Amino acid sequence: MRPIFTVVDSQILVITPQPYPVPTDELLLHGAGLCCIRQDRVLFEQLDFRVHAGELVQIAGKNGAGKSSLLRILAALVAPDDGSLYYRQQPLTAVASDYAANLCYIGHQSGIHEQLTALENLSFWRSASGIAKADDFALLAELGLAGLEDIPCRMLSAGQQRRVSLARLWFTRRQLWILDEPFTALDQTAIAMLQQHFAEHLQQGGAIVLTTHQNLSMAFTRQTTLELAYRW
Amino acid sequence: MVALSTFVQRELRLLARQKADWLNPVLFFVIVLSLFPLGVGPEPNLLRLMAPGIVWIAALLSVLLAAERLFKDDYRNGVVEQLVAARQPLLSFVLAKLFTNWLSTGLPLVLLSPLVALLLSINSAEFVAMLLTLLLGTPLLSLLSVMGAALTVSADKGGILLALLILPLYIPLLIFASSAMEAAAMGLPYHGQLAIMLAMLLFAMALIPLAVISALKLNVS
């Protein structure tokens, strides 16, 4: 664990920003014997799933293999058809609010309203996650959206909308990120930038679960790939 | 409570951008009421006699008209899903929807009631009764229609389903509201009807937000 307080010059107390105190390697999320059935088809069964702090888990598999279904189960949106989930060793049903408060889920849909501007969407998600106002202009500029802050998102391209949606990851203090196809529609620069941001998050003890069809171009210190087979 | 004001602000902004969503139901209300004197003839006594029923049926239908699209956009773009995953902000989201729905569809009806009184040649005692029933009744209409919208959000053509689901729940309100206006027209006290309407409103206020949250969760899973 990083120190919360550091004494500098023996007099001045510097409080280092520490979003979430985590011992690294802690088992954050554990799914035991997960099973998911859709339209009489068993997508997966007896699936054991572990996510540790500082770990990136990539879920791969063909279309229809059940990647998004698994993510929705992990985000506690849908109950698994069998098996159970544990958050920090406790049954998820008992600590559901704690879990939700430490989770940032961005699904297949972007979560941005097309009639609102990038700035409005961003500040909405900022305060919906209970985070104080900050300089959203700077953040949007950093994400390559300078000059597009004030036009409705329906005027933006798919990739730009994705960037607005993912901008949340730059201010969220949630430890566990569950992202469904975050790289969709993004260009190479944005993908590299996003992966760089992932690395920083992992370094601070965060954890990421994501689905993607492309191979991650960056090597993360702790990375696991889970391949879901398409089953008939 | 996660920043209720944020959600209200967002809804108000959306209302300002999508004016047709709330202007259409209000216009519908005015059009129906102004067509009645033309249709049944401008006989003042006849219009006065029918006023309670006309006003309330027009109000019910106009609120129903506004209900269908209430959660549609936020469901399609994933906001509902992500708020359900985050759990905590969901109540604020629902309360903001309820409040702004009343603000955009219920309140205009209350504000238009002087015009209605003119169109249907209602006297001042009946006008007061109409104003009171609209003030008590429109929030209840909003509550019920938000619940219906939440239940039918994932249905592709939810409009008919919504009407079938919600109109029966409107009926007690219709009965007591028009009965209060009729009593006022006859110079009788109508506290009883108002008290029952208030009771229904309080009951709905306590339980419907929870029902809406459950309905949204159900539709996301």
TrEMBL record, chain A:
Q: Which Gene3D superfamilies match?
A: P-loop containing nucleotide triphosphate hydrolases (3.40.50.300)
Protein name listed in UniProt: Cytochrome c biogenesis heme-transporting ATPase CcmA
Q: Which organism is it from?
A: Rheinheimera aquimaris
InterPro entries named among the record's database cross-references:
AAA+_ATPase, ABC_transporter-like_ATP-bd, ABC_transporter-like_CS, ABC_transptr_haem_export_CcmA, P-loop_NTPase
Q: Does the keyword Translocase apply?
A: yes
UniProt keywords, alphabetically: ATP-binding, Cytochrome c-type biogenesis, Membrane, Nucleotide-binding, Translocase, Transport
Q: Which PROSITE patterns match?
A: ABC_TRANSPORTER_1 (PS00211), ABC_TRANSPORTER_2 (PS50893)
Where do the ABC transporter domain residues begin and end? 22-232
UniProtKB/TrEMBL annotation, chain B:
Q: Where in the cell is it found?
A: Cell inner membrane
Claim: Transmembrane helix is one of the keywords in the record: yes
Q: Which UniProt keywords apply?
A: Cell inner membrane, Cell membrane, Cytochrome c-type biogenesis, Membrane, Transmembrane, Transmembrane helix, Transport
Q: According to its UniProt record, what is one Pfam family this protein matches?
A: CcmB
Lyase found in the keyword field? no
The portions of this protein that span the membrane are: 21-40, 46-67, 102-122, 128-153, 160-181, 193-216
Show the InterPro entries listed in the entry: Cyt_c_biogenesis_CcmB, Cyt_c_CcmB_bac
Q: How does it sit in the membrane?
A: Multi-pass membrane protein
**Location, primary (coarse class):** membrane
Task: Look up the domain of life of the source.
Answer: Bacteria
Q: What does this protein do?
A: Required for the export of heme to the periplasm for the biogenesis of c-type cytochromes.
The UniProt entry's sequence similarity note says:
Belongs to the CcmB/CycW/HelB family.
The record's annotation in PANTHER family points to: CYTOCHROME C BIOGENESIS B-RELATED, HEME EXPORTER PROTEIN B
Q: Which NCBIfam families match?
A: ccmB
| UniProt protein name | Heme exporter protein B
Give the organism the record lists. Rheinheimera aquimaris
